[in-house]
Amino acid sequence: MSQEMQGKLCLVTGATLGIGNATALGLARKGAHVVIVGRDAARTREAAAQLARESGNPQVDFLVADLSSQAEARRLAAEFKARYPRLDVLLNNAGAIFTQREVTVDGYERTWALNHLAEFLLTQLLRDRLEASAPARIVNVSSTAHASGTVAFDNLQGEKKYSAWSAYGQSKLANILFTYALARRLAGKGVTANCLHPGVVATGFGHNTPGFLNIVLGLARPLLMTPEKGAATSIYLASSPELADVSGKYFAKCKPIASSKLSADVALQEKLWELSERQTAAVG
Ligand SMILES: NC(=O)c1ccc[n+]([C@@H]2O[C@H](COP(=O)([O-])OP(=O)(O)OC[C@H]3O[C@@H](n4cnc5c(N)ncnc54)[C@H](OP(=O)(O)O)[C@@H]3O)[C@@H](O)[C@H]2O)c1
Known about the structure:
With 284 residues, this protein is an alpha/beta fold. The protein has helices at residues 18-29, 41-55, 70-83, 110-132, 164-186, 212-220, 227-230, 232-239, 266-280, and strands at residues 9-13, 33-38, 60-64, 89-92, 136-141, 191-197, 250-252, 255-257.
């Protein structure tokens, strides 16, 4: 274990497996105090114990929340704030793709609710804690899949027509639009916001998607990156001293790259921000 991130508190969502788990491990190995979030208490407790064991860092805690529920996201933020006085890195990693259209307890399509609204809401609720802990960082895990996404305001919830990839691409585009709008709001406050594509990684991704998609992902598995390699850009954005003042950028392979033309549309970023505020009743 190194001392590189000693004294830093990092909150990582979706860290029971996959890229989030490998990211939490990397941050724990750098000496950070890591708090992981999972939706299943037993699995999340076991993941925290595994991370502490493998990193040699006993400072790995866990909190439980199903982020597709806004009440759970609010409870998570309240529990976090009650327990921890600071937050140096918020790593919004949890995300999934769903073959079938499902609606959450709040009445939103599940991909939109989990991949975008939860990230928006949790960040809004923890922003004051991040600003009070400045310098601090927000890292949002998007995907190259954003490039095929559009924000279909007339079919946002897949209510007219649902496709898993369209819903996923839309949510990953929203991650980038949100990051850019957030970076503008955080300018001068000592908190950076960046986003990334992790690579195409062999994880549990797609396990919620029975059928064709799951079969394709299963067949491709041997060709994919390991979660450790897939976590490299997240860890870099969360920890690298050279990024202390870098904000509002999209990264892949630890390098800033251009995101889609649509993601750079400031009017769209602001329209999405207003919509997300309304859909989460969170003002930022
Ligand atoms: N894998 C890739 O090739 C790839 C490529 C580009 C982008 N990404 C992005 O990388 C991120 C991580 O994906 P991954 O591939 O590591 O997927 P994964 O292995 O399926 O892990 C997803 C994590 O999110 C958690 N999660 C799922 N639904 C949740 C909910 N409702 N509430 C709280 N936590 C929930 C899962 O917890 P459970 O244990 O409860 O399921 C798990 O810890 C996602 O944002 C994804 O879009 C992945």
